[in-house]
Amino acid sequence: MLERLAGNEFYCFLDGFSRYFQIPIDPQDQEKTTFTCLYGTFAYRRMPFGLCNAPGTFQRCMVAIFYDMIEKTMEVFMDDFLVFGDSFSSCLSYLDMMLKRYEDTNLVLNWEKCHFMVKEGIVLGHKISKSGIKVNKAKVDVIPKLSPLTTVNLNGIGII
User: Fold this and answer.
1) In whole angstroms, what is the distance from residue 155 CA to residue 138 CA?
2) Cα separation, 146 vs 140, whole angstroms
3) Looking at beta carbons, which pairs linking 105-108 to residues 24 or more positions away fall under 8 Å?
4) How many angstroms separate the CA atoms of 99 and 81, rounded?
5) Which whole number is the average pLDDT over 96-117?
6) How far apart are CA 19 and CA 156, in angstroms?
7) Extended strands (E) in the chain
8) In this protein, which residues make up the domain named Reverse transcriptase (predicted)?
């Protein structure tokens, strides 16, 4: 994925709002999410965070929605979306297509965390730009500052 992203002129980083909670649960399956508390019994209507298959289900939904755009004009990793283009106009066109699809499927973005038409950005701990892939120096610089290990855990047994 990093190699596909590197070398582009412009990038748009978008963040989905409330992640899994945007995915409705089929009414027939809602009873499977039932829980009991002091105030009664409740079932989720939308996919909650922490449901065992929620991450995989959410990723499959995103791939199904953007199936024809992934790897060509955009990438999706959970609720992080990255639109890219080799020119301002192509990136803007791809962004327009992506946002229309997003709107058509009633998804919502967290606008405060979105960055549009930037020349570089961090993806999976790597800095991508037109010049290629580079290590995120901020991640490397912190390593010498880490304190040395004081305990070792072998199969659940702590040894000091």
Assistant:
1) 32
2) 11
3) 105/65, 106/22, 107/16, 107/22, 107/65, 108/16, 108/17, 108/18, 108/22
4) 11
5) 93
6) 33
7) 10-15, 35-37, 40-42, 74-77, 80-85, 115-118, 120-123, 126-129, 132-135, 152-154, 157-159
8) 1-135
Which residues on adjacent β-strands are paired with residue 154?
Answer: 157
Report which of 56, 58, 57 is spatially closest to residue 18, judged by C-alpha positions: 58
Rounded-to-integer distance, Cα 6 and Cα 127, Å: 9
φ/ψ of residue 127, rounded to 5: -90, 125
72/32 Cα distance (integer angstroms): 37
The answer on pLDDT for 158 being more than 60 is no
Cβ atoms of 9 and 121 closer than 8 Å: no
Q: What is the mean pLDDT of residues 16-41?
A: 88
The mean predicted confidence, pLDDT, of the chain is: 89
Instruction: Establish how many alpha carbons lie within 13 A of residue 45's alpha carbon, considering only the half-sphere containing its beta carbon.
Output: 0
C-beta of residue 127 within 8 angstroms of C-beta of residue 120: yes
